[in-house]
Amino acid sequence: MVNNRQSVELAWFSALCDDDYEFLGVPDDDLQSSWSHCADIVRRAENNGFDNVLLPSGYSLGIDATAFAAGIAALTKDIRLLLAVRLGELVVPQLARQIATLQQISNSRLVVNAISSEMPGEHLSSEARYRRTTEYLYALGELLQGRAVDLEGEFLQLHIDPPRIALQGHGCPPIYFGGLSEAARDCAAASADVYLMWPDTTAKVSSVIVDLQMRAQHFGRRLSFGWRSHVIVRETEREAREAARRLLSRLDPVIGDAIRARSLDATSTGVNRQSELRSESDDEGYIEQNLWTGVGRARSGAGIAIVGDPDQVTAKLNELADAGVSAFILSGYPHLAECDLFARYVLPRINHGPLSLTHTPAALHEPS
Description:
Layout: E1 9-13, H1 35-48, E2 52-55, H2 65-73, E3 80-86, H3 92-106, E4 110-115, H4 126-144, E5 149-152, E6 157-160, E7 175-178, H5 182-191, E8 194-197, H6 202-218, E9 224-233, H7 237-248, H8 253-261, H9 269-280, E10 286-288, E11 291-292, E12 305-308, H10 310-323, E13 327-331, H11 335-345
Helix pairs in contact: 1-11, 2-3, 3-4, 4-5, 5-6
């Protein structure tokens, strides 16, 4: 039975960055990122009734998210496409043209996950990266809203009118953005519409939400909040915990360390917090009864899964929703199988639908 709480957005994850396994850390040719496999995940998520799907972006692994988005937009009808965009890889005017074109192809189903990691081969401090991201998101939003940009910034010197396609009425899609450092929080408050959090205790999540709400108010903006984690749901808690143990049963710790180290965000504040939570977990890797840190042994970024029976997983999502989370981006291993399990056991219990958001213009400077 669907609960009567306020509607939340439920999104799945298409593993474009070679992050799909039956056994964590053990490559499987059938699960390697490809157009065919990742398209199957998106179509399965749409058929199962998910509201949105994250299309992640990496550099050395997987396939290109933007090219993939253009292809899958033509093969889907209802599901939103949360495209990860690595700011800095393209000049802003070209990125604006791409996003406006994807909005046309998808009939305005595109939303953007702004990524602020270093470019391959680049070495830039965290503070500088987020200052660059703030400039990029300001300029990108202005162009997509059909406004000219006249900017002499630290990273962008841009004096340009918007491209014609940006004048078609689609506007700038909502911006999802995550980052735990002080610089990342300030960037989110000034630029984002949805602040994404990696898994943590509910008390910590609540404190971050309060902090970000205050920072956003400083810029005259409002934020919604999202949670990005993995999930393992089975008919019983015992079966779910056994599935978690099985997922790690063939992991070579050396390979797990190598997988985490090759990520461009391997030393970020958020990644360090995930490592801290693993160190505080019990002997089986649980930081709370149904929060399992084991995924982080072979994955950078979000390294925690909600593990339990349908009642327990639903209760955890409701607990987070009550704390202020309105968007959930979930994944599981293998992604097709866990997508079906979550859709069978939990999706019908949650009042859900796409977030009703419009982009709030970014603030380039703090108010005087």
